[in-house]
Request: fold
Amino acid sequence: MSKTKIGLGLAALGRPEYINIRDYSNHDKSQEAFMENAFSVLNFAYQSGIRYFDTAPSYGKGEEFLTNWNSKYQHEGVSLSTKWGYTYVANWQLGFSAAHEVKEHSLDKLLEQWQISKELQPELSIYQVHSATFESGILDNKDVLKRLYEKKKQTGLQIGITTSGTNQSEIIEAALIIKVENEDLFDSYQVTYNIFEQSTHAILKHLLQLGKTVIIKEALANGRIFKNEKFSHYQKLYQIVDSMAKKYQVGTDAIALRYVMDNLEPTYLLSGASTIEQLEQNIKAYNFKLENEELKVLNSFKTDSQKYWEERNELSWN
Reply:
């Protein structure tokens, strides 16, 4: 049995467009259709044993959907997490040409977004800084850090950060040494880690040894793990993963998820499924375990972090 629990992230369930190389342009993009689908996927996830659900204000209606679903069904034993620091500005406009979300790590933004996020209580267990960076100043903002510490003490929440980009390890190292009242502020770290982007492996193992919560996102590399002729440099990997998928009678996604479960053993591994069918395939990662030699082969496909993120930045929203 894996130590890692699969959770469900709402990044693709709460907004009509998201970074992914697979085309979903023929789907009904109305808010009503999205809410109905989100509730169906959330209920299927719960029925399948998933108890951890992650969202953010910038996921379109994702936080609203999760709050309403939680209130309506009141399933027992769920653990919810959300974030603050990004605002969704695309306003459900398809083909929105500017940035879909805007970052602001100010005290005002924390207080504003908390007024909505707090509705997820008492099931809310982790409250995260969304995409902490050195440039945003969040790790040096004593007023914000103090307020997060107060929330931690008042509510019992774990306070966390999420990271993206080439310097994820450096951000984590900086966050690790932040203390308020001689106590570690951050208990939880949500990080991009997958077959291609393995640069954080050592620091994430260290976090787990310290008893921190480690949450992995983008294990499918925004769809790049799936066979695609546009990515000629991944063709050898596609052949190997396809062979493993046939061996274990699962899809490519399950191999990619199982890789993270066996190679890192994080606390949670987020599925970004946007349909019941996708989630059904994702949770097949529980059905097998990769052999050590197979892990070594997959480890050999580690890419340069700089190139990985440059490639990700070029992916379009659809």
